[in-house]
Amino acid sequence: MNGLRAFVVCLVIACAAVVSPAAAVTPEAAVTPSWSALPVPPATPPVTVSDLAARGPGEAWATGYEQAADELRPMLYRWDGTAWSRDTTFPGSTEPGWLGKVQFVGAEVWILHNRAGEGEILRRPAGGWSSVPLPQTLWTYQDFTAVPGAAWVVGEDGTGLKVLRYDGSRWTAQAVPEGVLYLMGIAARTADDAWAWADTDSGTAVLRWDGTAWRDAKVPLPPDSNVHTLLIEPAGRVTIGGSQYTDGVARTYLMTFNGHAWRTTYPPLGDTYTEGMVRGPDGALWLPVRSDRAFRSKYARVDGPRTTFSYGPERTNAIDVKPRALARAGAALLSFGTVEVYGSKPNLMSERLGG
Questions:
Q1: Cβ burial 155-176 (10 Å sphere, 16+ → b, else e)
Q2: Rounded Cα gap, residues 12 and 18, in angstroms
Q3: pLDDT value at position 333?
């Protein structure tokens, strides 16, 4: 009996020695993805990154603006699968202004361009860049989205909110439901299925274009919340990211629509701004988060109820590394943002996971 008891005790101790270390590992320590740094030709600092879009592993575009003399200048970079290079061949590349959202529309690249105060859409088919002017000048060009057969630009002018839709040949101004004060963002899946998030006289709301009119989508947003971003996938799945405020304290929420119902979760992301969120090649949601290490970027991976974190490579003498946008590039994830090295102003950085 004593021999059996000793055997059982030894077996328990052995099992504990195997299990305990794994149980003690934090979510951050358990993550093993390896991010690598990609060189980016510098711009004139300080720089601001607007957006990043990729079409497979061999093509991606990053947009933004730099501080040139006393004015802003548009900034465009291209990834060819091997290296980043700066593109200055688009119309207005040397004029004051900025580049906003970039999207792939069929075989073309489309970019929102503020060109010396005038709005236009840059288009790049195989033959080179061209531009589509907006039908009117806006005070604020808030957001842009494009799909085959349609594009939208939202903003404001002296008369208030403007929603401008392009059908490939002409622009039309669209009406929104009564009580909508401001459209903060827009995204589309098809020419007849677009979504926008708005500030209304009763709080934040989500609108939907069904090919005929913009209507309140009746999304059950959390009380006292706002919306940062909205992802629409080809199959129709919609993911909303935003912040909910309780007693003045913000916490990040995610809502997913499967075509029938909405599901709300609160991953452990603090008050992370979710605008840079994308669906990764592994099916999980990825987004940049505020790093607790000044010399390394930090990313969150949200896969159902499980949230894990990973860090980018160490950057010598860096005091602030800020990934701004993520994009799926085939089996890899691309990141584009800024890095501030001690003694200098923020300039460009890029990182890649996998590939």
A1: bbeeeebbbbbbeeeeeeeeeb
A2: 10
A3: 98
Q: What is the reported pLDDT for 32?
A: 59
- Over residues 326-342, mean pLDDT: 97
Beta bridge partners of 207: 196, 216
Whether the CB-CB separation of 72 and 92 falls below 8 Å is answered with: no
H or E element in which residue 75 lies? strand 71-79
Cα distances (angstroms) measured from residue 204 to each of 96, 217, 351: 33, 12, 34
pLDDT of 17 over the 90 cut: no
Q: Which two tokens stand for residue 235?
A: 């199959």
For residues 188 and 147, the answer to whether their CB atoms sit within 8 Å is: yes
Number of C-alpha atoms within 13 angstroms, CB side, residue 261? 2
Contact status, residue 200 vs residue 194, Cβ threshold 8 Å: no
Residue 57 · residue 33 · CB < 8 Å = no
In eight-state DSSP terms, residue 334 is E
Determine the pLDDT at residue 18. Answer: 34
If you compute the radius of gyration of the chain from its CA atoms, what whole number of angstroms results? 23
Structure tokens at 15: 């099992």
The region that residue 202 occupies, defined by phi over 0 for left and psi between -120 and 50 for alpha, beta otherwise, is alpha
**Rounded to 10 degrees, what is the CA torsion of 24, 28, 31, 37?**
-150
Cα separation, 146 vs 166, in Å, equals 9
List the structure tokens of 268: 């452990």
Q: How far is CA 64 from the centre of its chain?
A: 13
Per-residue pLDDT reduced to its tens digit, 295-307: 999 999 999 999 9
pLDDT per residue as tens digits for the range 180-235: 999 999 999 999 999 999 999 999 999 999 999 999 999 999 999 999 999 999 99
> How many Å apart are CA 232 and CA 87, to the nearest integer?
29
205 close to 216: Cβ distance less than 8 angstroms: yes
Q: Which two tokens stand for residue 65?
A: 């603006």
Residue 133 has pLDDT above 70, yes or no: yes
Q: CB of 267 within 8 A of CB of 273? A: no
